[in-house]
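User: Reviewer 2 asked us to show a designed sequence for the structure in our supplementary figure. I'm pasting the structure tokens here. Could you produce the per-position amino acids so we can include them in the response letter?
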């Protein structure tokens, strides 16, 4: 039977007595609050990390599929502006043309930055094939399976560094969770299964009672951590890629195809305009 709020209020110094007859320790409710806050924070961090992986994967697909089209549009815009500037001999037209061309100038490491789609000499054959709707090697897809998601959540809950109360244990957990996050980012259920077996064979977490001042400090740290995660989640959601992903969470490929179709239409328009100027 649970004591009502009115009954709890009787006697300012009254303490609840558990069924066993002994008075509850002063830190017990605080410990329960800390454990609840830790559990809630871990669940929140799992959700944020899951969304971060989805955003990064979608960003990779976005760049591989649409990057060449954006590059082609910029090149066409620069050439159109250069022809117009040459014809008008207007300083303002020349300035706009120079700025457009400067944005396309090669920079060190451009091949790595463009993921093998172009270099200082222009688009690679695969990029050209994509722009002309010819068959092209599909971009690598990294979408964790339901099994991988489940394994990741279980490991994050069990091995989260926030559950450690000693520096040595925290360091062990941080190293392990780094490997868990990397396996999840690769979408490897097999690696996650191996990590789950490794964790199960390792030492168990030993919890010891904490003094009240340490518990209060822990609650404060958990609150600050939650604020940081909330900011990270907001930044992910409000980013260009995050906003796009939220438009079609169940069919991101379809969204990319729609955008690709729009870009192909724009490329065709620019090419027609450039051809007309060159006649």
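Assistant: Here is a per-position design you can include in the supplement:
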């Amino acid at each position: 039977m649970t004591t009502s709020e009115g009954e709890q209020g009787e006697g300012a110094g009254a303490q609840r007595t558990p069924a066993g007859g002994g008075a509850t320790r002063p830190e017990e409710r605080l410990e329960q609050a800390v454990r609840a806050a830790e559990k809630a924070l871990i669940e929140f961090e799992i959700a944020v990390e899951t969304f971060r992986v989805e955003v990064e994967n979608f960003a990779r697909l976005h760049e591989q599929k649409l990057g060449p089209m954006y590059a082609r549009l910029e090149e066409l815009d620069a050439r159109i502006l250069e022809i117009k500037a040459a014809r008008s001999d207007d300083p303002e037209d020349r300035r706009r043309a120079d700025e457009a061309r400067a944005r396309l100038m090669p920079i060190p490491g451009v091949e790595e930055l463009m993921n093998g789609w172009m270099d200082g000499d222009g688009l690679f054959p695969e990029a050209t094939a994509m722009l002309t709707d010819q068959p092209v090697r599909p971009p690598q897809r990294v979408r964790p399976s339901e099994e991988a998601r489940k394994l990741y959540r279980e490991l994050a809950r069990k091995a989260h560094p926030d559950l450690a109360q000693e520096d040595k244990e925290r360091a062990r957990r941080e190293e392990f969770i780094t490997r868990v996050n990397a396996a999840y980012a690769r979408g490897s259920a097999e690696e996650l299964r191996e990590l789950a077996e490794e964790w199960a064979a390792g030492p168990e977490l030993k919890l010891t009672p904490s003094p009240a001042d340490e518990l209060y400090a822990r609650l404060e740290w958990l609150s600050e951590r939650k604020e940081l995660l909330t900011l990270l989640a907001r930044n992910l959601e409000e980013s260009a890629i995050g906003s796009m992903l939220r438009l079609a969470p169940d069919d991101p490929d379809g969204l990319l195809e729609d955008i690709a179709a729009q870009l192909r239409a724009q490329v065709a328009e620019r090419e027609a305009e450039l051809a007309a100027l060159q006649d």
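For the response letter, you might also mention the following. The radius of gyration is 29 Å. DSSP finds eleven helices and two strands in the chain.
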